[in-house]
Amino acid sequence: MSFKDRNESDEIKILRFLNSRMKLAEKDKIRFRNLVKGFEGEVMFDSLTEKLQCPSYNLNDLLLETKNGKFQLDTVMITQDPVYLFEVKNYDGDFYFEGDRFYALKRNTKIPCTNSNEANPYFASC
């Protein structure tokens, strides 16, 4: 069950508006494509989590603030026992998993951390 629906960011809305009315600079086109692709991946993730049989509450696009700044969590899934934090990526291409890391085969892609200690300095690990 989703408590907080996912919506397009203001940046996507602004870039979509500008793109329909003018020729965007190449860096803005790339930024717009990446934002839309990321949003589409998050929507796909939401459709998958809706099919889960375990009872859970999902908070999407949760923006939190600390004294050190703001950070955004794509999805926080609260279940009876653990709380899961998801950082959703919508990459394409060929990847492989070795040890505790993901690697891209053909291009130099920064893969998000797979280790909870690297995930976010705002969370303590057990």
Give a description of the structure.
With 126 residues, this protein is of the alpha+beta class. The chain is 33% helix and 28% strand. The chain has a 4-stranded mixed sheet with strand order 1-2-3-4, with no helix packed on it. The protein has a two-stranded antiparallel sheet with strand order 5-6. Strand 3 and strand 4 (83-86) form a beta hairpin. Helix 1 (10-21) crosses helix 2. The longest helix has 25 residues, at 26-50. The radius of gyration is 17 Å and the shape is globular. The model has no long low-confidence stretch (mean pLDDT 84).
Shape: globular
State the end-to-end distance: 27 Å
Oligomeric state of shown chains: single chain
Order of helices and strands: EHHEEEEEH
- In total, the number of domains comes to 1
Q: Beta fraction of the residues?
A: 25-35%
- Average residue pLDDT: 84
Structural class: alpha+beta
The unreliable regions are none
Write down the Rg: 17 Å
Instruction: For the largest sheet, list the strands in their spatial order.
Output: 1-2-3-4
Main sheet overview: 4 strands, mixed
DSSP strand count:
6
**Discrete helix count:** 3
The helix fraction, in percent, is: 25-40%
Domain NERD: 37-126
InterPro entries: NERD
Protein name: NERD domain-containing protein
Organism: Priestia megaterium (Bacillus megaterium)
